[in-house]
Amino acid sequence: MNLVFLGAPGAGKGTQAAHFARRYGLAHLATGDMLRSAGDRLDEKLRALMNRGAILPDEVVTDLIAERLDDPDCAGGVILDGFPRTIGQAEMLEARLKGKNPTRRIDAVIMVECDLDALFQRITERASQAGGSVRADDAEEVFRHRLEVYKRQTRPLVSYYQKKGLLEKLDGMASIAEVSAAIESILRSRALLTDEAQSV
Question: How is the chain split into domains, by residue range?
Answer without folding.
Answer: 2-189
